[in-house]
Design brief:
99 residues, alpha+beta, 3 helices, 2 strands, globular
Length: 99
């Protein structure tokens, strides 16, 4: 049960920032970043490497969180390509444009 207390906080999550259309806790974005870093994620279509992203990680994650939670983040289109796998195929999404 979410019990609201002072200043809009509740026991289960962060408060909903004014003007935000999606509830995305900043901690979720931070944890996703840690997983990408741990897995050695590759550069995206924008060419930004993990090392480059990490140089300004707090600002970069804040910008990403802000755009996602406000509803202004729209990922680019992807093209589906089937790749052969043992026992069948798997659909792989390939970005079609640079950011």
């Amino acid at each position: 049960m979410n019990v609201i207390n002072r200043k809009g906080w509740n026991r289960m999550s962060e408060p909903m920032p004014e003007g935000k259309s999606h509830v995305i806790p900043r901690q979720v974005v931070w944890e996703a970043w840690l997983k990408v870093k741990e897995n050695g994620g590759a550069a995206g279509v924008d060419g930004v490497t993990i090392g480059q992203f990490e140089e300004g990680v707090k600002d970069n994650l804040y910008k990403l969180w802000n755009r996602m939670s406000s509803g202004s983040y729209f990922p680019g289109p992807v093209r589906a390509a089937e790749i052969p796998k043992k026992g069948g195929t798997r659909v792989l999404g390939i970005p079609t444009e640079a950011a």
